[in-house]
What does this fold into?
Amino acid sequence: MKIGNGGESLKIFVLAKHAIDTESEIRLKDEKSIDEKGLIYDINDWDRYAIEEAIRLKEMHGGEVTVIGVGNNEDTLRKCLAMGADRAIKIPLETGMDPYKTALAIKDVISEENFDLIIAGLMSQDCNNALVGALLASMLNLPFATAVTSVKVEDGKLRVTRELEGGYQEEVILQLPCLITVQSGINEPRYVSIMGIKRAKSKEIKEVDVKVDKEMIELERMYLPPVKKAELITGSADEIAEKLIEIFKEKGVI
Amino acid sequence: MRVFAVAEIRMNELDPVSVELLNLANEIKADGSAEAIVLGKDVSEFANELSKYSDKVWKIENDSLENYNPEIYADVLIQLFQKEKPDVILFPNSSRGAELAPLISTRLDAPIVTDIVGLDFSNGVKAKRYIFQGKLMVDILVKDADTYVFTVRQGVFKEGKEIGGEIVDVKIEPTVSPARQFISIIEPEVGEVDIAQADIIVSVGRGIEDESNIELAEELAKALGGVVAGSRPVIDSGWLPKDRQVGISGKTVKPKLYLALGISGAFQHIMGMKDSELIIAVNKDPEAPIFGVAQYGIVGDIFEIVPALIEKLNQIKS
Ligand SMILES: Cc1cc2nc3c(=O)[nH]c(=O)nc-3n(C[C@H](O)[C@H](O)[C@H](O)COP(=O)(O)OP(=O)(O)OC[C@H]3O[C@@H](n4cnc5c(N)ncnc54)[C@H](O)[C@@H]3O)c2cc1C
It folds into this structure.
């Protein structure tokens, strides 16, 4: 398939996770589970950038965007459809905290499809493994780049910049088909209204059952990290301000 | 156990995390060995440095290794691993490690855990890591395998000792023609204010809520004679320029005062400010990890504390 230069179109798959929002109150129910009370779920922040990038590429080059999610993620898939995805595939599999299982499940479904590009978020905001994208690319034997900060289609290839440490970036060219994981800030994701999400209800979410028997890891226990705590300054806002100024003076800051 | 650590060369310098990997390797090797791997075009100097902390250094020099390419690097590493059969392979949790480790894990069918801060082989294989950007910690039980792959958080395994080992020169030619091509390195943008030089930094996070509230931070910075910086989400939203970002993908700062307003304290942020002389944090969440690095903490709303502080500072001045 030839793409780019206003020529033929791009077939893009986006991976999206329905994840626990970082604003949630996270309390442990027991060693292996989090109290569902107080938890807010939404599309993983990095995946918001991923779906936006896919839709922009489609708007520029034409083509099709399919969003794919593992687990109980209808709301996130709907949101992606409302943002402009054409199709959604739901894999109703409980993968817990094992990114390997998630990648295997997606691999099973995606290897049956035709695509030029897979876009994933750099990591999930809940488990922070940053693995599903890179594992999937390795399993499918695709060239890939992580932490991508800009994308251009050029001569049927993808020219991207990726983030390194300390503000440095690296420019690389990837042959298609390929996979990228995107870093936050790559674009400004569009806003979708509740109405928009309602309207997207007419679009179909296809369910595909996948069995994954292999596991690499198991959660043993979760706990609050041991931390040394700051000395707390308390009182009214005015009292706190006064105490802060005393500290500034004492330390020679002002 | 044979524990292999893949050293990190960044901008033609040996990154200190390489030695931290070897510290961990020495800690867990039991009666086995801690072995470093260093790849590049001309890496003799780095091999010498690494040999102080390892039983053996595998030095792989090759013109095609001059610029990092994950396909070539992985291919060369796999050739070495297939011959040497390591029990454990350690990478730094860096922009490179994040690509190489999953590649190697897939090729070797080896379980992988990323960004670990602890590793224990005494009773099964257990890795310790943070989730929810530092708010929770987990112990992960890794299934039995011939080889394990881990990426290791920087700054954790700082303690170690010199042991002094040999350097082995190995010739390995890449066997792949890569589908990814390196073009260039892009330098960080330079702006008018260098936050790394500032004595006083007022730093805002997502808790600042809206672009229009940056002004409040500017006002406080002015009253204190400092500059405004921010966490990544503030820069991603375009509310502050990129050169004001504090953290691993931004700048490292060590001011006399670092005032963190509405910043949760994710590791990637903390790495850029933890060595500040005085850290004071304001956050409405008493469990925010930022209170773990701050000397003083205020559990409260920045929109109440900051205006009160600005007023008091201006009173003193006039
Ligand atoms: C490869 C990589 C590189 C990264 N590099 C960097 C980097 O260089 N720098 C960086 O900062 N991050 C970086 N990050 C992102 C990092 O992981 C965090 O997502 C980010 O630091 C969170 O920013 P934050 O604390 O502002 O936002 P959040 O984590 O959302 O925290 C907001 C905080 O504000 C508090 N709050 C909200 N409202 C108020 C109020 N009215 N008063 C008081 N408190 C309030 C909340 O309690 C919360 O703790 C990187 C991530 C990755 C994966």
About this structure: The CA atoms of residues 32 and 219 of chain A lie 7 Å apart. The two ends of chain A are 65 Å apart (CA to CA).
